[in-house]
Amino acid sequence: MASVSNLAGSIIDPDFLSDVESEIHFTTTRDLKRTLYKFFQHVKKNNNYDHTVLIVGFPPENFTIDDDYDKESLLPKTRKALYFAESKILILTMPDRLHEEASRLFNRQVELKLNEMNCREEIIPCGGATARMKGVSKEPDECWRPINGDLTCIFEAAVLESDRVLHRYAKIWLEHPEQKVTQVVTMMIGRARPEIILRVWKQGQEERDTRAEHPPRATLHQTVRVTLAEGDIRLSFQLLFKRKPRSGTAEKDTIIFASEIEFIARVVWQDMGFM
Q: Which is higher by pLDDT, 262 or 143?
């Protein structure tokens, strides 16, 4: 991690800064655009992991949602943004191609499972659409919602040495009072060895806080550590669709089997030179 200012570290959770490589202080849009271009052009030479930059003092009016990424766009087209509006702190990640490939493959597995249940038309895949919440805006890798509802399921991936920041992403999605997300899947792709860690997070309450009015917490429900096929990932049908499966149909929990997870892993590992 690059050395970041005491200001940034005191305002937001340090885990969000664990993979920051550079800190930029906003002055003008022209200077920022030039600095970002130089930074990301330089780090492109270092393949096989994500690159993250911290921007301090980024004006809220310059953070656009789902812009057209035209030539005049301030932020780069390939990006995953986390923006804290009140503190004007923007954490910008350029995902590695393996990160993006893993996300696409996971999305394809979810689509295949929905097709098997004849439910694909009931769920809208929203990709990396930006979600703006009070105080924070976040762009996931993949997300889904019922056709007439809010987002219920999020997928977040990263090529990292530790998945601490992915835990923080899950907390944003599951704990923010304006969000209706009920399940988050995180995938950490290890940089140095052929290992992928998938976790399923859901809303829950800490054991010591069982009061009904206590806000929900992001709780870990499942972990699969992939070196070879070791386990399945299960997503709740009821939490995804906001209804129970209909009897006499193919509707059920979405299970991505170990062999299907291993397929994603092998594609990624082959490109990383581990196989």
A: 143
